[in-house]
Design a protein that fits this description.
This protein is mainly beta. It has helices at residues 2-18, 159-166, and strands at residues 29-36, 46-49, 53-58, 70-77, 84-89, 98-101, 108-111, 115-120, 128-136, 139-147, 153-158, 177-185, 188-195, 202-211, 216-217, 220-223. Strands 2-1-8-9-10-11 form a six-stranded antiparallel beta sheet. It has a five-stranded antiparallel beta sheet with strand order 3-4-5-6-7, with no helix packed on it. Residues 1-18 have low confidence and may be disordered.
């Protein structure tokens, strides 16, 4: 009986230690969105929704009375140290329309502009994650930015590079997978994917586990 009790205690300690992470992340929470207005009033401008602050000029190239979309400015999503700044400029001809990251535009990264949702993932380790999600039906693309402990913004990964590195292109020159959901499991971001043309059927997942020593994410591909 005594031996069984000791073994049981040891097993419990193993289970408890396996659940202890160097860092823990919260589940993603939506904090705002931005999109390109393709028609109607203010066509061609950028619509900003649920920003904590937005300072920009209305886009009046097609409608001088437009007050629903913007041409050039800066919006912030979130508050205080957790704010993500989005620098937008529809008049920009080269290098993309949207730069996201720090208030200082020198520490920002290019992201798409079609129908983007901004999520936030907080942690107990001094870093904050910002998945920027491009929606088109059930399929999604991600640019995942982060604010490090020193306040510097980095780009951890994006689905374009993930596809190139882990799946390559299909015979038709199109990506063979689509991405459907990003979730959190302790110290790991889990990105689910499906085969192209079958978004309702999950084919596997990519696990981005936090490496506290490297202060970065590793990646593991799981095929179902």
């Amino acid at each position: 009986m005594k031996t069984k009790r000791v073994v049981g205690m040891a097993l419990s300690l193993v289970i408890l230690s396996s659940a202890c992470y160097a860092i823990s992340f919260t589940q993603p929470q939506e904090i705002g969105s931005f999109s390109f207005v393709q028609g109607g009033k203010g066509a061609g401008g950028i619509r900003i929704e649920n920003a904590s602050r937005n300072k920009g000029d209305y886009f009046t190239q097609y409608n001088k009375n437009n007050s629903s979309s913007y041409g050039k400015g800066v919006a912030s999503f979130g508050n205080g140290d957790d704010a993500l700044y989005v620098h937008y400029d529809v008049y920009q001809k080269v290098g993309g329309l949207i730069l996201a990251g720090n208030k200082d535009i020198k520490n920002t990264y290019s992201v798409g502009v079609l129908n983007q949702v901004v999520d936030i993932i907080k942690s107990d380790g001094g870093i904050t994650i910002y998945p920027i999600i491009s929606h088109y039906g059930p399929e999604k693309d991600y640019v995942v930015l982060g604010r490090q402990k020193d306040g510097k913004f980095v780009k951890y990964f994006d689905t374009e590079s993930i596809t190139n590195n882990h799946f390559g292109m299909g015979r038709n020159g199109m990506p063979p997978v689509v991405y459907t959901k990003l979730a959190v499991a302790g110290d790991t971001l889990v990105l689910y994917y499906s085969k192209a043309g079958m978004p309702a059927r999950t084919a596997g997942e990519l696990r981005f586990k936090w490496d506290d020593k490297a202060q970065w994410f590793g990646v593991e591909k799981i095929v179902y």
